[in-house]
Design goal:
Helix content is 19%, strand content 28%. It is built from eight helices and 25 strands. Helix 7 runs antiparallel to helix 8. It is globular. 50% of the residues are buried.
Length: 498
Amino acid sequence: GARVYLRDEVGPASPADATVRRDYHGNAFFHAEGAFEVRISGKAHLRVVRGIEYEAAEYEIPVRADAEVDAPVRLRRWSHMAADGWYSGDVHVHLHYGGEYLLEPAGAALVQRGEDVHFLNMMVANEGSGWVHDVENFTGADHELSGGEHILRWGEEYRNNFYGHMCMYGITSLVPPIYSGFPNSEHSHDLPSNADAAAHCHAVGGTLSYAHPMFESIDLDRVFADEHRLSVEAKELPVDAALGHIDAIDVLAYPANTAESCALWYRLLNCGLRLAATAGTDTFMNWCEQAEFSNPPAGDRVFVGVEGAFTTESWCAGVRAGRTFVTNGPMLSLKVNERGIGDEIEAQSGDLLRIEAEAGSAVPIDHLELIVNGEVAAAADADGDGRHGALSSELQVDGSCWIAVRVRGPEHELVLDPEGAFAHTSPVYITVAGAPIARRADAAYFVDWIDRLIAMTEAHARFPSHADRDAVIAQFREAQAYYHANAASGAETGASDC
């Protein structure tokens, strides 16, 4: 299968039975498998794309009136991460969410093969009320259309617009009540907390990440402005992470600010919390023309290092172990003293670490950056053709820290993201003398965050009783104690840690 862009002298062209949509750039596309027939007017331009590990193929096709032309297409693979045990996924996809089309699971399976994304986590989710989309497709197991290296499975988006949204995958049963805090529904109160829902997710075998964490600046005055109280940003994330309920954060997502989401993630990592980087596009597959939301799934995707056979269980275990990198095009590798992404290295103060990173891409990239405790410690420009880059560095450690690599590039028509080419690894963790990573300023930031969350909860959240409100706030205070302790033991800056 593949994604097809076909345009003739009149406009977009497609088979009669195709589901046609427009991507973020406004280009019409459909997915096809094998051969298809299209009636075109005059010269046509054909672009065929299969995910991000194949070169896009482009053709100009002249057709005379009343003539037939064959246009065979051969795609060249430039990357094969699965051959090395790295399997891609999109943890946040909606088959139905309003929109123009009524779709079947077979349509999702076709798109999955066309995008060559290995794990596609489809969402059971409400929208603006108590109506829950696609619950009939949930079985708690891989869909019967799964096969080979493509697992199609329904999970859940647990939605509370006050606390934030969570993507749940690998669950064997739905996490009730699926949503909370929606006035026109059976669950109008902000109960249970996201922390309780996340704990339930783990209890039914699930793995979970926070969706679209930040849309704008992580400045606390903005995050907790009254007009943003229902912003669907990840306001409860610092609580749930400190309580041990969260596995990952979707640092790459279409309806989010990547730089600000990363900045929030860095602060959490600097407080000793180990959260993998994941990607969830929040694609609405039955929308025709809705900017990023009508993109194909997995334009942003997470690659997960899997041990053994590729299964839902092994893929989710890789997320929980932190063996991930996220990307909208470039591929990344990282080794620290020959240890890989997600690993922990026990070191002594003064030890010298050898770091090797590499990036390859079908779209242009500008440079690689070595990130240590949220700061750029080294950088390297891409090679002359802009499709490859490498970085070698040595780092002397003075204290516990985390090390990751990111790559950036310009906007490109094949990058379905408004912020240009981007990829980021999850960290390698360096532990010196058994001490946790602790940065005082970041811990203090989350102490303040939770104070503001509690104040907003008291002013605006809805509960059946004062006792219910107090129980949720008690959870918030329990998490805040973690950051108080981290602040008390933390270094003044990230730079002094490593």
